[in-house]
Predict the structure of Regulator protein.
Amino acid sequence: MADDTYNSVDGQAQLGAVVQARDIGAVHHHVHAAPPPPPAVPFQLPPAVAHFEDRREEQERILRELEGRSGGGGGPLVVALTGIGGVGKTALGFHVARRISDRFPDGVLYVDLDDLRRDGVVEVADALGELLSGLGVAPAWLHRSFAGRSKQYWTLTRGKRLLVVVDNARLGNEVLPLLPSSGDGLVIATSQGRLHDLDGVAALEVPMRPLAVEDAVRLLRHIVDDARLAEEPDAVVELARGCGGLPAALHVAGRWIRSHRRRSLSRLVAELSAELHEKGIPMVEAVWDAAYAGLGPEAARLYRLLPEFPAPVVTVPAAAALLGEDVPPAEDALDELEGAGLLESRPEGPRIHDLLRGHAERRSREEDPAGGGRQGARERLVRWYRRQASRADLLAAGPRMTFAEPGPDLPGVPDVEFGGKAEALRWLESQRLALYGCVRIAYECGMDEDAWALCEPLWTHFLDHPHYADITDAFGRGLAAAQRLEHLPATIRMRCQLARPLWEQERYEEAAEQLRHAVSAAGALGESEKERKLKASVVEFRGKLASVQGDWASAVADFESARRQHEAIGNAYGVLLQTHLLGCAALGAGEYGRAVELLTDAHRMAVEQDRVRMTARTGFELGRALRRAGRPAEAVALVRAALDNARERGATSDEARVLEELARLADEMGETEAAEGHRAAARLLAERCGGLPGADGGA
């Protein structure tokens, strides 16, 4: 949840509300809005493929195991589909899940662990976040810690008949935390190796071998509706055998056959066999080479460059950036690659199979041994994403303290057209894997300015979407890049930004270490207005770390210091923010009179500066302070306005938090029935939105 919690309130009306409201009854007609509808039952499987070889034996094993389980008493059954890459594990998992989905009326979830893998390791908390999102938990309700997310997941899956597909697991301990809590659930996990460490779990391992020749031939006949297959059965068998029984290879072979309708099948297979003998490569490699050879120049170049793209789904703008071309040539190249079977067509967009990614890398090294083309593509990609992220950030967060320029446009490659703040935020989330991947690429390629500059807009994204493995990795690399450049302001900024995800994961000492270095380095900053703001910001971050640890005395000292620095440079908003933080710290420390005094000042300043978001935020905190100070009647209108604002924005986590505060106010006023009504409404919101009972939206 972003720092600026409330952002759409009439500030002048709220300022006068402190003295206008005198009884709790004024609130009642505002608080009984209809709760949000329950989330739709998730079904996160892609549409069925046109051609699937049944794998009857494997399916029958799974169905027999399911029939023999009574469920309920123990944990869920785990079906582990194991086998080499390209053998069709994911396709079988999807096929079985579709076939039996009616047995799981509470939904079907899917997570690909390779999408979340960094340096070979999966941050399981992020995988839980993906599954919780599928269960309808909005980011604001998502608990920050792994333990909290585990409890949310167990709560939401208790007693449910839920099917979870976990793709590309490498270890059993990557799967175990993702098991639903109900014994009526089922988990289908795919892995290239055996999942030995599924201790204490009911598990069925289903090894998947390459398709037998007759099954491979049958799949080819499904893929290619061509009379030559019936006329030349021996050639079909040889081709199927040469593809090693791998569906990933057979699909490419089928598309290749269709693209050469005038040649006999025997001639085509003979050409592949000649390559097999001349070059010493497997026929499956020859099939891919043949498909590649049939591409036009732009499609072939894009194929060679696709391994440089750090996300699974290749968008048209990303393809244009890789090529350094406009959108139409990129669209044509993607269409051609899909037509050749070298890209998988998925609802979310085209993806390149890992086996074909390896082939594309080999072709790229052969045709560009010096790597100049690959390096150029990486640079274009990083700089295009840097520019788009900066533009999205400006729309989403407005002007704020940054130290990097947006970067020039990329000649020939158009910018993304953002329709407004909401669309910019959606783009940042949809391109998350590519953006974080570009930070890694930039750092590894020595593009240090681009590496840390990309981290600035990722800060805005992180505040609403806490993907901790991604953000700690990115900010760590951004820090290292800024240090290599000896860019002092960027180094300090990166340390502060890294500290927050660390303390949100309760890694307090690591966060404190980053801030110790930042405070020390800030002494060497100059006296420009931006550098003086940065000095104040560092101290503010340290105060926030003290606040989350309950060290209110240290927090107050830091916020007072930061406020003096903002006063010295005439930064009115900085003074407002530090006054607000001081009021919250006083409230936390139990100094209610002081909190009222400070928050009244902050609220007044917010109104005078026409800061709508801060007017709402300071008004809500002032209402809390007034109640604690024994003045609940004065708090009612402030809290009521916060409720109206939360509902206007559809911010259900804020709404629940405000309802809880209204319940406390009603208790203070002796309105027991009203208090219970507010609490019931808050509980219903939490239930509908996936929050843990008694938690304020996980914030």
Observations:
- The longest strand covers residues 77-82.
- The chain has a mean pLDDT of 86.
- The chain is about 60% helix and 5% strand.
